[in-house]
Write a structure and sequence with these properties.
The chain is α/β, with parallel strands linked by helices. Helices cover about 35% and strands about 20% of the residues. The chain contains 16 helices and 15 strands. The strands form 3 sheets. Strands 9-8-10-1-11-14-2-15 form an 8-stranded mixed β-sheet, with helices on both faces. Strands 3, 4, 5, 6 and 7 form a 5-stranded antiparallel β-sheet that branches. A two-stranded antiparallel sheet has the order 12-13. A hairpin with a 2-residue loop joins strand 5 and strand 6. Helix 5 packs across helix 11 and helix 12 runs parallel beside helix 14. The chain starts with a strand and ends with a helix.
């Protein structure tokens, strides 16, 4: 049996006035997803428990069958795993966005999609400032515990290496806010709170002076791009401990994604990670390249998971038409060829399921159920003919605890 999971990140939405009351999923032309719906069954899952932020970190753990109450420690540790960074029990990982804040408002949580090279130069300057005599005088010996790690574009990390002599000041009660939930909103009341937050807030505030006259920003402003004004620290946590997918289901898996968060979950789940040239984690990603790589991976793996960030990025920018376009590319270049390949090779099950809703109106992740469709071996067709929020809401198939869905998809319940 082969299993395929397609995750169109953040594609669930609300009715749009500009679409005459349709959601982007309803308005998009999605023949491949609709064929899955006609041949299989649609339903809903809640991957965003109300006691957690409605973020991709919790939602994707839930989607892949991991109860966040048991396994979630924070977003940053998952992204550290993507970079092969091992966290010991006294260590903490902290997500470090490079952002643009003007007049205490989050103008752009990506800093105009700052390049990885620019991010690396800025973070090296931040590290040098910490290690300088002035930095040591201001922060003390704790600077020896802190190291910035360049990721991709605006998505980076700060690692705290704790010890018995210098334990981390953070705890599970330390609270932070995702910058993508602050788009066009004031940041004044959104800084970290709780144990260790004074260190995080100080680093964030000091970065403004450090970056103000940085050569990277001078070049960006001259090129008409937004400057990187601040570090934004959030999503911190300690070392996670997940059972692998093979331990749970006795199958070998592979993940195709351009996002470190999903790479990290895949690493912790024991899946291989297949990198696709041209996969950007944005609207310009190589959809066809991802689809072709997934079809090829079916020969070597029992489970192939394809994650596409583009619908979520369109939502964060409030671009309804771009979201529809991304969904149609996913349908044409990923869902359709994968379904055809599965039908030609033997027994299979295929699942399409976003992690969480992301509303174009608010430009934010949102709690609530998302639609799903499952087709293949042992799945009886229901009355649904389309894959969208309305058709899914009419189904009896529901997973209020999203982490229960994977057992159903894998035939274990």
């Amino acid at each position: 049996m082969k299993y395929v999971i397609v995750i169109p990140d953040g594609c669930a939405d609300e009715p749009q006035q500009s679409l005459d009351g349709l959601t982007p999923l309803q308005a998009a032309k999605l023949p491949a997803m609709d064929r899955l719906a006609a041949e299989g069954t649609v339903g809903t899952a809640n991957n965003t428990p109300s006691e957690y932020p409605a973020g991709s970190e919790v939602a994707n753990l839930c989607l892949l069958g991991y109860d966040p109450h048991q396994y979630f420690t924070g977003r940053a540790p998952l992204e550290a795993a993507a970079q092969g960074i091992k966290l010991d029990q006294r260590d903490w990982a902290i997500r470090c966005n490079l952002v643009t804040i003007t007049d205490q408002t989050m103008i752009d949580f990506t800093a105009d999609h700052v390049s990885t090279e620019e991010a690396d130069a800025l973070l090296k300057s931040a590290q040098e400032a910490l290690q300088s005599p002035a930095g040591r005088e201001a922060y003390g010996d704790i600077v020896d515990c802190l190291s910035f790690v360049t990721g991709v574009s605006y998505r980076n990390l700060l690692i705290f290496r704790g010890s018995e002599a210098m334990p981390a000041p953070f705890s599970p009660e330390t609270r932070s806010t995702a910058p993508h939930d602050l788009t066009d909103l004031p940041v004044t009341d959104a800084f970290p709170r709780g144990p260790g937050s004074d260190l995080l807030v100080r680093l964030m505030s000091d970065s403004a002076d450090l970056f103000a006259d940085h050569p990277v920003n001078a070049a960006r402003v001259e090129a008409g791009l937004k400057p990187v004004t601040h570090l934004w620290l959030w999503g911190l946590g300690g070392a996670p401990d997940l059972p692998t997918f093979q331990q749970r289901y006795d199958v070998r898996g592979a993940m195709i994604t351009a996002v470190d968060l999903l790479r990290g979950i895949a690493a912790l789940a024991g899946w291989e990670r297949i990198e696709v040239e041209g996969a950007t984690g944005y609207l310009d990603t190589d959809y066809a390249g991802k689809g072709a790589a997934a079809v090829q991976a079916l020969a070597d793996y029992d489970v192939v998971c394809v994650h596409i960030e583009a619908p979520d990025e369109a939502s964060h920018e409030g671009r309804v038409e771009a979201k529809i376009e991304a969904l149609e590319h996913i349908d044409q270049h990923i869902v359709a060829p994968l379904h055809d390949a599965l039908r030609d090779q033997g027994p299979y099950r295929m699942l399409v399921l976003p992690d969480h809703p992301t509303f174009c109106r608010t430009k934010k992740h949102t709690h609530g159920v998302v639609p799903l469709v499952i087709a293949g071996e042992g799945i009886n067709a229901d009355a649904a003919k389309t894959f969208d929020e309305v058709a899914a809401a009419e189904s009896d198939l529901s997973f209020p605890k999203g982490w229960d869905m994977m057992d159903h998809f894998m035939g274990r319940s």
